[in-house]
Amino acid sequence: MISIGALELSELQKIRVASAYLFSLENAQDDSFLENLNLSTIKSAFRAKAKRYHPDYHPDAGTDEIEKRKERFVRVEEAYRVLRSYVPEIDSTPCATTKQTPRIIAVGGAKGGIGKSIFSANLAVYLAGLGKKTVAVDLDLGGANLHLYLGETFLQFNINDFLNKRVSNLEDVLISSKYGPLLIGGDSSQLGTSNIGFSRKLKLVRAIKEMNADYVILDLGGDTSFNVIDFFLTADQGIVLTTCDPASYLEAYNFIKVALFRKLSRLFGTESELRKERDVLLEKLIEEFTQSPSDSRFKVVNELMTEVGEKHHHQFNLLREVVSCFSPSLLVNRVGSRCNVPQVVKRLQDVSRKMLSINLNYLGSLPQQTEIEVSARNLTPMIKSHPGSMFAQSMQNVAKSLIMN
Ligand SMILES: Nc1ncnc2c1ncn2[C@@H]1O[C@H](COP(=O)(O)OP(=O)(O)OP(=O)(O)O)[C@@H](O)[C@H]1O
Ligand SMILES: [Mg+2]
User: Fold this and answer.
1) Of the residues 107, 111, 117, 125, which should be mutated to test ligand 1's pocket, given the most ligand atoms within 8 Å of the CB?
2) Is the C-alpha dihedral spanning 398, 400, 403, 405 positive or negative?
3) Which string of b and e fits 174-206 if b means at least 16 CB within 10 Å?
4) CA of 117 to the centre of ligand 1 (A)
5) Considering only Cβ atoms within 10 Å of each terminal Cβ, which end of the chain, N or C, has fewer?
């Protein structure tokens, strides 16, 4: 969304010119069209224009024609850059009403060893088996091992080649993995690989969103660092894994809370991406709430919303939508005979509703299965090595409900 009323005249003109290039003259003059522009609309328009004008798409055109197309493409690119700078990276239309391509699914949960990578690998193999172009991305930058779960021991390219600018396109580091999905693997053996800075992270997030695929699965690291949380917030659908172990579901709750607070902070806090609608008092309020909740005046999100409703009502609707649309999915893994799944799910749903005012979706559960260790050792995903197993069956059910949502 672009807040037209808050713009300087020169900025508004810049936006109109860019919209004329990327959309049409009529659209450029239509204020309500401009007000409703969002990231995905801008991206799809850019893709369509790039196809029309990029010289690489028209290798048979004559020299004059190629020159004209090049010139036009430069303007389209510039228009895209301008419009992007006016819409926030985290879209302020919080509930996606249409399914984007690629559909990005992030797999997180703050605890290590709970099965995030095993699940990511099997999910990617399942989706690829349906004939969907699926990319599995190892975003556990400090502990990359997704490639092993996908049967690959040697990576000709990895994500560091893109992050360190050895290649310019993320698609250049894609490899075809043995069991179907495309893979962007990681290599954590180099010093400092997990400490990527803000601009490299932004570049990576943009490249992921622009990938040509049906599904992109992001396998995240097991912590709540800004990078992990920002990758999680990039997704159209965030899955939080837990086991029945109390330490694990406490970590799952912490992960969800930190992700929501980060989202609020990126929208309304001092790092706000809605710069045109800056509200300094609200920024302070959000920082107070998200960064020092123990001595904050507000203990739960609902109290924060009441205050915003009273004192910052112009931002209240957006805040309410952001909170109500933040709805991660919960997956319980390693379920054994003594695990009471409904109880774990209810506890997490109750505390999320009470403290954070959010609804946590229950996605499903996966059994504890000893063969998983064997399949991991043999570098073969369970749904290939043991297709009839309980784990593989549950995996399929979870994947089916995921793609139906
Ligand atoms: N359902 C399951 N049944 C039995 N073992 C499992 C199951 N899920 C995962 N495991 C085992 O747990 C171990 C850790 O799994 P995985 O690497 O997927 O965890 P992770 O959450 O990605 O950890 P990290 O945060 O360290 O990357 C593996 O050795 C795997 O064999
Ligand atoms: Mg992992």
Assistant:
1) 117
2) negative
3) bbebbbbbbbbbbbbeeeebbebeeeebeebbe
4) 7
5) C
Task: Report the DSSP pairing between strands 237-242 and 175-176.
Answer: unpaired
Mean pLDDT within 3-27: 83
Q: How far is residue 336's CA from residue 319's CA, in Å, rounded to a whole number?
A: 40
In this model, does residue 257 exceed pLDDT 70?
yes
Under DSSP, the state recorded for 353 is I
Which atom of ligand 1 is the closest one to the Cα of 335?
1
Tracing tokens 């559909």 back to the chain, one arrives at 103
Q: Where in the chain is the domain with CATH 3.40.50.300?
A: 103-260+324-404
Ligand 1 pocket, residue 114 CB under 6 Å: yes
Task: Please give the full DSSP string across 253-307, using - where no structure is assigned.
Answer: HHHHHHHHHHHHHHHHSTT-S-GGG--HHHHHHHHHHHH-TTSSS-SSHHHHHHH
pLDDT band with cut points at 50, 70 and 90 for residue 148: very high
Tell me what pLDDT residue 137 has. 98
Residue 274: pLDDT over 70: no
For 311, the 3-state DSSP assignment is helix
Architecture of the 103-260+324-404 domain: 3-Layer(aba) Sandwich (3.40)
What tokens were used for 9?
Answer: 């005249």
Sheet with strand 182-184: strands edge to edge: 175-176, 182-184, 134-139, 215-220, 103-108, 237-242, 329-335, 361-367
The total of other beta-carbon atoms located within 10 Å of residue 160's CB is 20
